[in-house]
Amino acid sequence: MKKTLLAMTLVLGSLGTVHWATADEGEREHGLLSLLGYGQDVDPVANATYKEECGSCHFAYQPGLLPERSWQGIMTGLKDHFGDNAELEQPVRDQISQYLVANAADHSATGRSPGIAKALTTEGAPLRITETAYFRRKHHEVPERMVKENPQVKSFSQCQTCHTKAESGSFDEHQVEIPGFGGRHH
Ligand code: HEC
Ligand code: HEC
To answer: Lower CB density within 10 Å: C or N end of the chain?
Structure first.
């Protein structure tokens, strides 16, 4: 009973905001499932050191968003990390590397991770999530003016600015609210 009430409150609460997606019957059902926690796309970050060290400049990307070889490439190139120096002391770096590799897309059974790993088999070891074909396919309808030209977003790398549940590992399109835009505009 309590659970039902909570679900109702969540659904009613969500009606007040404009979401990216239009809510026809089928989609709303999917949205409800997500609100109830069935929409896990990737496992949430579960390592405090990683969150602290790799979440200070940007969103702490979940390891299940990239395959092992990508994380290894990122972790061995931290001195020149997209123009920044993100080098760490070796014990800390090793600890983070182990966490990322153990939970990488190709070692996770959660949500989208297996699909991401499969989609990237022909893409070498991309260092950016945002440059993979998988990511581009999901975002090709989102125009520049909502991203680069949007002072509240600036870059696709800032997942959490649009995906309101990004930190919990949910990237469902129904939980997208683009700052300054809100609903579907295209
Ligand atoms: C000193 C700041 C800083 C720290 C610390 C840092 N990064 Fe980054 N990272 C950046 C910048 C800058 C970018 C490029 C962002 C952009 O293009 O908007 C980036 C991008 C990334 C991307 C690619 C995002 C995309 O576009 O798909 C990944 C993955 C990443 N970082 C992982 C890590 C990991 C893992 C750590 C911890 C070992 C880390 N970062 C620590 C500054 C940092
Ligand atoms: C400018 C806002 C914005 C940013 C930043 C952004 N996304 Fe998205 N994302 C969207 C929108 C809008 C959709 C739905 C697109 C559609 O359905 O046409 C989406 C869809 C997705 C989907 C598919 C969801 C579904 O229900 O099919 C995934 C997965 C995803 N994004 C992951 C990410 C990740 C990971 C990042 C950061 C590296 C990110 N996104 C950054 C706006 C954004």
So the answer is: N
Nearest-5° Cα angle at 46, 40 to 135: 45
Which one, of 170, 180, 168, 171, lies nearest residue 138 by Cα? 171
- Which residues does a 6 A CB cutoff place in the pocket of ligand 1? 53-54, 56-58, 61, 74, 78, 81-82, 84, 86, 96, 128-130, 155, 157
Distance of CA 105 from the midpoint of ligand 2 (Å): 17
> For 103-130, how does the pLDDT look when each residue is reduced to its tens digit (9 = 90+)?
999 999 999 999 999 999 999 999 999 9
CA 158 to ligand 1: nearest atom: 18
- pTM as predicted: 0.86
Q: If pLDDT is split at 50, 70 and 90, which confidence band does 39 have?
A: confident
